[in-house]
Amino acid sequence: MPSPRRPAGGGPRNSVSRPLDIAMVAHFAYGAIAGGRSGHVGGVERQTSLMSRWLAARGHRVSLLTWDEGQGDEVVIDGVRVISICRQDAGLPGVRFVTPRWTGLINALNRADAQLCYHNCAEYVTGQVAMWSRQRGRPFVFSVASDVDVHPDLPELSKLRERWLYRYGLRHANRIIVQTDAQRESLKSAFGRNGDVLPMPCPGPAAIEYRQPDPPRGDTGVVLWAGRIASVKRLELLLEVARALPSVRFDVAGMPYEGDPYSQAVMAEAHAVANVNLLGTVPREEMPTRYRSASLLCCTSLYEGFPNTFIEAWSHGIPVISTVDPDRLLTRLGLGAAGSTAGEIAAAIRSFMKDGNRWMEASQKARAYYAANHAVDAAMSKFEGLFQRAHEEHGS
């Protein structure tokens, strides 16, 4: 069991005059908060863990509710009270949705007894947390994680109960956080709710640590691709780009899902492309090195929200070439380039590789955009303010 630890360096040390009791619900976040590699540790889990630590360091009382991954009922990590819901595999098929998963969540929320609850990502849990909050008279803040979270058809939620519970959560959330203006418009048109646009926090080099990277030389640079090996990420599109640019090296960070036909097939295809370097799962602590060794980050997804990989790349001054362009930041602010086809992506990569001045301008703009919007203190102060307002508006 992890022992209690002091808040990690770099976080805010000054406390707030009116601290809140906040429950952060993120079932898969134990691996992220504990610094391990257990379970699924994606963008939502890393962000929720980061937010929990920051808020705790500010003097708020923070509970993080996660699956039980062997840590026991409760443990304190970096000032955050981590409360177990139940084991993910506990219970019998057909009834585990109710018990022990839903009952375990209620028990964990009762133990946290927070003044405000927070949940990120569209799922049935959104509605469950909203129900508990409503019954207890506590404000509930929900955060949209992806564009599909505000799509009227909710394509990622296949079961009727999932869609019903998620819609319930949206209806009864006191505040809804979105990442882009486009998501705010979709939330309003599809669900009739208003959203607050907040940039997500992301750790990166501090100003004193940052070193401007050098532009690529000619067309022999490195392009990094990082993400889940899943159909929505469209690794096959990157392979098409790689074949069109044989002098460029493409580093792919990600592992296929065991037993998934798509990921197994596309990885087999990737092995046959000479200039594709398969890195497998890259530990979080090694990702900064991967960004610094690349000239560009490439995204080939069908849809996204606001990818953490974009923010991480910008924090190191690395431009992004992508098939998705949140609020047209890449093209509007010059943080990279966007394209919809393999040919357009390849042309953009070729242009940045050959034009050092264009690359340098994008690099500097990317770093400046990160520092102003996504550096941890800058972004988290806005979340803290929204949590305070939600609490005060609710009269809790």
Q: What do you see in this structure?
A:
The strands form two sheets. The chain has an eight-stranded mixed beta sheet, with helices on both faces. The N terminus is likely disordered. Helix 11 links the parallel strand 13 and strand 14. 46% of the residues are buried. The chain is globular and about 60 Å long. The chain is an alpha/beta fold and 396 residues long. The two termini are 35 Å apart.
Keywords for this entry:
six-stranded parallel β-sheet, 14 strands, single chain, alpha/beta, 396 residues, eight-stranded mixed β-sheet
Mass-distribution shape: globular
Q: Catalogue the unreliable spans.
A: 1-10
- Number of helices, counting only DSSP H or I runs of 4 residues or more: 14
- What is the total tally of β strands? 14
Percent of residues in β-strands: 15-25%
Main β sheet profile: 8 strands, mixed
Helix fraction? 40-55%
Please provide the ordered H/E string of secondary-structure elements. Answer: EHHEEEHEHEHEHEEHEHEHEHEHEHHH
What multimeric state do the chains show? single chain
Average pLDDT confidence is: 92
Please report the distance between the alpha carbons of the first and last residues. Answer: 35 Å
Strand order of the largest sheet: 3-4-2-1-5-6-7-8
> Based on helices, strands and strand pairing, what is the structural class?
alpha/beta
Cα gyration radius (Å): 21 Å
